[in-house]
Design goal:
83 residues; 4-stranded mixed sheet; 2 helices; 18% helix; binds zinc ion
């Protein structure tokens, strides 16, 4: 499958267990992240994405659209989080 969003993500995201969660900045100086595929921005600011799928405890973020487009190809599983 060829898609402009695919680069080398399979090297670090293949068969990962992801968590669906609200975006929380890692620190004051690291207040946003980008979707690993399309580059959409996650932050707490208006107009940015506020929820998505994360791997490695918030290190990697994947937006809902890319999750749905690539979940089969990447064999992702989603960890249930307590409400
Ligand atoms: Zn995306």
């Amino acid at each position: 499958m060829n898609d402009w969003r695919l680069t080398d993500q399979a090297e670090y995201l293949f068969e990962k267990e992801l968590k669906y969660q609200i975006y929380r900045p890692q620190s004051k100086d690291w207040d946003h992240d980008h979707c690993e595929f399309c580059g959409d921005k996650f932050s707490e600011l208006e107009g940015d994405l506020h929820i998505g799928y994360t791997a490695n405890d918030g290190y990697y973020w994947i937006c809902e659209k890319c999750f749905n487009d690539f979940k089969v190809q990447f064999h992702w599983t989603v960890k249930k989080t307590e409400n």
